[in-house]
Amino acid sequence: MWITNTPYEHAPPELRAIYESIYALYPAEYGPPVPAVTRPDGTSDGVTAAHSLVPEAMRHMLAGLAMMMQPHLPLTRRQHEMIASVVSAQNACFY
Predict the structure, then answer these.
(1) Considering the domain boundaries, does residue 2 fall inside one?
(2) Count of structural domains within the chain
(3) Residue 34 carries which DSSP code?
(4) Would the pTM of this model clear 0.85, i.e. be above it?
(5) pLDDT exceeds cutoff 80 at 7
(6) Can you give the pLDDT at residue 47?
(7) Would residue 3 count as lying in a domain?
(8) Which range marks the domain in which residue 23 is found?
(9) 21: left (phi over 0), alpha (psi -120 to 50) or beta
(10) How would residue 59 be classed by pLDDT, with cut points 50, 70 and 90?
(11) According to DSSP H, which parts of the chain are helical?
(12) Of the candidates 20, 21, 48, 24, which has an alpha carbon nearest to the alpha carbon of residue 34?
């Protein structure tokens, strides 16, 4: 079963504003798409879009996650990616 989602590119104005408010909280290095999870047509699945079914929950949950990824905190981007990779592999998840 797949979660119905609305990616940023197809989001209505209200949802697009929520996406933008979330993206603004993340460190700049998290902005560019990651080639490893980008399909040949340029699209990709994303954790953010998976939360678009309940936009207000998406806003709060992902804003909290963004705060935990701030560069002044002890974990590096590499460590974040390593943790995410281990969790994704354990959950048999593509990303």
Answers:
(1) no
(2) 1
(3) P
(4) no
(5) yes
(6) 75
(7) no
(8) 8-90
(9) alpha
(10) very high
(11) 13-23, 47-50, 55-68, 77-90
(12) 48
